[in-house]
Acetyl-CoA C-acetyltransferase
Amino acid sequence: MAEAYIVDAVRSPVGRRGGSLSGIHPADLGAHSLRALVDRVDIDPGLIDDVILGTIDAIGGQAGNVARTALLVAGFPEHVPGVTIDRQCGSSQQAVHFAAQAVMSGTTDLVIAGGMQSMSQVPLTSSALVGEAFGFTTPYAESPGWQARYGDQEISQFVGAELIAEKWDITREEMEQFALESHRRAALAQDEGRFARQIAPQNGLDHDEGVRRDTTLERMAGLQPLRPGGRITAAVSSQISDASSAVLVASERAVKEHGLVPRARVHHLSVRGDDPVLMLTAPIPATRHALERTRLTVADIDLFEINEAFASVVLAWMRELDVPYEKVNVNGGAIALGHPIGATGTRLMTTLLAELERTGGRYGLQTMCEGGGVANVTIIERL
């Protein structure tokens, strides 16, 4: 089978809600990473066969196939197409999968995969709320078929995070310790300049705004749970954020023809589903499936990036797969760095690639929980 190579990856800084990137139109937010990527690679954007960008809540500035709008804002020629996809939190990771699959099939040679999200301008679940305001049905509760299969249960990521904490008996204190370490690791990574190569500064911002250097366990303990009597608080949850990110995927032919220097090879791509009520557990079977398919073990993987949607998600995953924490999210995760949903997948990949290079690792595995009980897994091999 033909290979798919990652030539380069770049991201904007992650701005917090109402922060430095909050006033930027989503198309301009996405265009920033697209332009930065082709500038870094020094390649003619007219050679790009397709631009695949993830975003969710595609209303307002994120509506109307924002991927196409973003590439035009970035100055790409009008013949370059673009498509916007939604696999919830895994949207831009899925964009990488589609890009790599297109290259591996031999139908394309150069594809940009990425994503953008302005959660400041388009709050989470806006599309569902707008639909309800116009009298349309809701995603789950009003479907007779859904109720026949799953009953009249409340479906949300917050419920899922609580159910996971209960099922795996993960205490609030454990999650707060995990969250504190995420901030500590992210702060150290910033201080050591580990993110510098990844980030293309935007609007005067050159760092991720969400890192709380002064947070403490005592402060976390004083927060009210998101649900009465629950264990999940804002402190152990990912931050609402604004950002974009992009990855250039190339065929072997394109690498040779344009003199490109790949940074990694796509070793494995897969996606699996799990219980949609628990919703956020799919990284567990998805990771198992990926390791079985590749005949790799946890010991073979040098670094893991799993999205910190909630601390309970990562802690349950680590327990089930016996993944050592020293290999996981070594530069912090979404609890500290933020979770700009459409952009997070390729933000994680950009960070994973840079850290493999910094540490000399060979294999990196990325996964993340996604709405509806789904999870992508990507394994990349540093070159």
Observations:
- The beta strands are 4-11, 15-16, 50-54, 82-85, 110-118, 241-251, 264-273, 303-306, 363-370, 374-382.
- The radius of gyration is 20 Å.
